[in-house]
Design goal:
Blueprint lengths: L2 H23 L17 H13 L5 E7 L9 H15 L4 E5 L5 E6 L2 E6 L3 H4 L3 H13 L14 E8 L5 H17 L7 E4 L1 H35 L2 H24 L11 H25 L4 H28 L7 H21 L2 H8 L14 H15 L1 H19 L17 H12 L4 E9 L8 H18 L3 E3 L1 H12 L13 H14 L3 H4 L9 E7 L4 H18 L5 E6 L1 H35 L2 H25 L10 H24 L5 H28 L7 H32 L5 E7 L2 E7 L1
Antiparallel strand pairs: 1-5, 1-6, 2-5, 3-4, 7-9, 7-10, 8-9, 11-12
Helix pairs in contact: 1-8, 1-12, 7-8, 7-9, 7-24, 8-9, 8-11, 9-10, 9-11, 9-24, 10-11, 10-21, 10-23, 13-24, 13-25, 14-22, 16-20, 21-22, 21-23, 22-23, 22-25, 23-24, 23-25, 24-25
């Protein structure tokens, strides 16, 4: 089979495979599932899943805060009428199970055989009876559980708490938001006075932004890379062919992801951009070498043969190391990071396959390209790189000194990096959504859920007086020391029923004085146990209860410290023969991710370093050469860690992947450099000449690929997600520092430390040969 027929067949086969992948890509869906960020396989996750089956999720709610008009309080009758209309609208929505609203709350009183509900608010009388307004206000701000939950502490805002269908997905969530916003518009309540918070808020906003940013990032990357390719090769095919290869890789990668049933989330949304910039590496190395051979006067066939032969080995190794860098992310217990590492790693290998099948096939079928200025004595790049190589040699002491000083300073600054995250850490502090959440932290109880399961011991049930007193003691600690601003538990139920039975007076909102009174109260409690507010806090059979609440989003570092103190208090101050407790909840699980971040990052880096070490040992059989390769690639990682410490950037879920990815990508050019050096050493016995020759041949591709990588990642700076922004910034800086180290530190380290092993080669001399020993 001729080479042209082989090229045609290759294009046909790859075209069919691309069409199949396109079919699956069309089925891809966007998703942001908060639960996916829980640590998979963790015992606490298994426990929480069982807990939700008993009591429901702690994040299936929507907070709707409404500020009173300027200069007025929440007791303004017109404002209360608007809030009541909004309450009725919310209650009619299909996925709303219950609405807690200030305008419908009532003080329950039991008299004889009758149960009466006395509203806390009487807005119809406020205009004519100011005393009634003052009395209502006084009662509300003295009643536990109202202020911070539905009334703000400064009486300037009210909140509706909407209990929703469990695990509500985006389409019904969007319908709910549309209905509520429509009602707000009809009631003439300005958006500036309305605030939303809850899981479905983040879900809706994140998915919409993911779609928008994916389009923006890809568009900017295509424009940027097209410009850089044109400036580099100055030929239409030097631009079009790499784009075809990389876009084909993206189609294949997304197709495989879709075929496996994986959706696009906050992490996998980076996959197309990652493939676009990383997949360019092999194509640029191939075309750079191909153009160089043509420029030196080689025929098209010979140029392509030499290119494939010399670039294939290095590209294969670099694809291996880069994909391994992504595969190490699979050690993460966080599912989105695991999926991102898996499918990006697979796609990097696919990029290598397409680069050495599709690209050569297109070059074969393409007529011999006309170069701008073909030269037999080399290209202008040779002159630029030659001068740069001489400057590096002359200034070698300066290079080593600056590198050492930067390393020491970076290590010192890196110690300032802390592991800390908040519920909406991926949104900037000025983002409207995050500002809404901050509004509830300031004006109300907060947005961070708290969950503590209560299990009576010693044959008791949740309504045993000793158990209730222990629970009340815990509530006191949580209020005074822990920082919980709103709490509800079986104690709340018992106190509320007791108050209702004693005329509804605030003084009666307390636990029974003795076991006898508690026994008489049990009969009344049994009548209410199937009501939603009761079943949400205690199981019908009384075998377990729930202490739930909300607090400000204090961050994972502060939360970990508070939880450690709480566990110590529960161990030392709560009688385990009466009551056993266990801290759980979605916030607790998210915080647990921090315990794994450092370990996962160290594991990923260790695997990367081990693989690179193994590759260098196989190639050069030299431990010195291993250090020579690792130093210029680890140095940029340490510098970026120092930049994070200097800028105050915390380690969190989204930024924890930076070091592993950056090392896997940065080492790519080093692998190309040393693999080319190995080939040249087979022909050139002088190490200095071999390094210089490698520098001239690999330098152009190293600079070009690095610029494209940095440029591609720089598009992430336009992201509205802080995590994505820092991924782009810090990986871009790592690659920028990496190319500087590649062109300055690496050649010097090779010349200083690489000791070529002594070998015996046969040198042809006419019809005879003689053995020559090379140093």
């Amino acid at each position: 089979m001729s080479i042209r027929r082989y090229a045609h067949l290759t294009l046909i086969v790859l075209g069919l495979l691309t069409a199949v992948s396109g079919y699956f890509v069309a089925q891809l869906r966007f998703n942001y599932n908060f639960n996916d960020f829980y640590p998979a396989g963790d015992p606490d996750l298994d426990y929480y899943q069982g807990y939700t089956k008993r009591f429901g999720n702690d994040n299936d709610y929507l907070l709707l805060g409404v500020e009173a008009p300027a200069g007025r309080t929440v007791f303004d009758p017109a404002f209360l009428a608007q809030v009541d209309s909004l309450t009725q609208l919310a209650r009619r929505q299909p996925n709303v199970r219950n609405v807690t609203s200030p305008t419908t709350l009532a003080n329950t009183v039991v008299e004889g055989l009758g149960v009466f509900s006395l509203p806390y608010l009487h807005p119809e009388t406020y205009a004519t009876d100011p005393a009634r307004r003052a009395a209502d206000s006084l009662l509300i701000y003295q009643t536990p559980g109202l202020v911070g939950n539905v009334f703000s502490s400064d009486a300037r805002a009210l909140a509706l708490v909407l209990q929703l269908t469990p695990d509500l997905k985006k389409p019904p969530s969007d319908s709910l938001f549309a209905a509520l916003r429509g009602g707000l518009a009809r009631l003439n309540i300005p958006e500036a006075r309305v605030h939303f918070a809850g899981r479905i808020v983040a879900q809706s906003v994140f998915v919409d932004r993911l779609k928008w940013e994916l389009v923006v990032f890809m568009s900017l990357s295509v424009l940027l890379v097209t410009g850089l390719l044109w400036l580099t090769f100055r030929t239409w095919w030097g631009v079009v062919l790499p784009l075809i290869v990389v876009l084909g890789t993206i189609s294949w990668g997304l197709g495989i992801m879709a075929a496996c049933g994986v959706t696009i989330d906050l992490m996998t949304a980076l996959l197309p951009l990652m493939l676009f910039v990383v997949g360019m590496s092999d194509t640029i190395h191939i075309i750079s070498r191909y153009v160089s051979e043509l420029g030196y006067g080689a025929s098209k066939k010979d140029a392509l043969r030499v290119t494939i032969k010399e670039s294939g080995f290095g590209s294969g190794l670099s694809a291996l190391t880069t994909s391994l860098g992504f595969f190490t992310l699979m050690t993460s217990t966080i599912r989105p990071i695991h999926n991102f590492g898996l499918f990006t790693g697979v796609a990097v290998i696919l990029a290598f396959i397409l680069s050495f099948t599709l690209l050569p096939a297109m070059l074969v079928l393409l007529g011999k390209p006309a170069l701008r200025e073909p030269r037999r004595q080399g290209h202008s790049w040779d002159g630029v790189l030659g001068r740069l190589f001489r400057i590096v040699l002359v200034r070698r002491r300066l290079v080593f000194t600056v590198s050492g000083l930067v390393l020491v300073a970076s290590i010192g600054l890196a110690t300032r990096v802390h592991i800390n995250s908040m519920l909406l850490d991926d949104l900037s502090r000025k983002d409207p959504v995050r500002m809404d959440f901050a509004f509830f932290d300031r004006q109300f109880a907060g947005v961070r859920p708290f969950e503590l399961e209560l299990k009576p011991a010693g044959g008791r049930d949740i309504y045993d007086l000793a158990v209730l007193r222990q629970t009340e003691q815990i509530e006191g600690y949580l209020d005074q020391t822990y920082g919980l601003r709103f709490a509800a538990s079986p104690v709340t139920l018992v106190k509320s029923v007791r108050k209702a039975l004693h005329g509804g007076g605030l003084a009666e909102y307390r636990l029974p004085a003795d076991t006898l009174e508690m026994r008489s109260l049990r009969g009344k409690l049994r009548q209410f146990r199937k009501k939603p507010e009761f079943s949400a806090l205690a199981l019908p059979d009384g075998t377990a209860g729930r202490l739930t609440g909300r607090m400000a989003d204090v961050g994972s570092v502060r939360a970990d410290a508070l939880n450690d103190q709480l566990r110590r208090y529960l161990r030392t101050s709560v009688d385990s023969t009466v009551l056993r407790t266990r801290l759980t909840g979605s916030s607790n699980l998210i915080d647990k991710n921090n315990e794994n971040l450092t370990l996962n990052m160290i594991q990923g880096m260790a695997i990367d370093v081990a693989m690179v070490t193994l590759i260098v040992l196989v190639l050069f059989k030299s431990f010195r050469m291993t250090l020579v390769v690792l130093i210029p690639n680890l140095l940029p990682i340490i510098i970026v860690a120092g930049v994070m410490g200097l800028a105050g950037v915390n380690m969190k879920v989204s930024t924890s992947i930076i070091f592993t990815i950056a090392f896997g990508i940065a080492v790519d050019d080093t692998i190309h450099f040393i693999s080319k050096l190995r080939l040249i050493l087979g022909k050139e016995p002088d190490i200095f000449k071999a390094v210089r020759r490698t520098y001239l041949l690999a330098g152009k591709a190293v600079i070009t690929t690095s610029l494209i990588l940095v440029g591609g990642f720089s598009t992430l700076l336009f992201s509205k997600f802080d995590g994505t922004f820092y991924v782009g910034l810090l990986i871009g800086l790592t690659l920028l520092f990496g190319v500087v180290a590649e062109l300055t530190l690496l050649p010097l380290l090779i010349l200083y430390f690489y000791k070529r092993p002594k070998v015996v080669v046969a040198v042809e001399a006419g019809s005879s040969s003689k053995a020559t020993q090379l140093p």
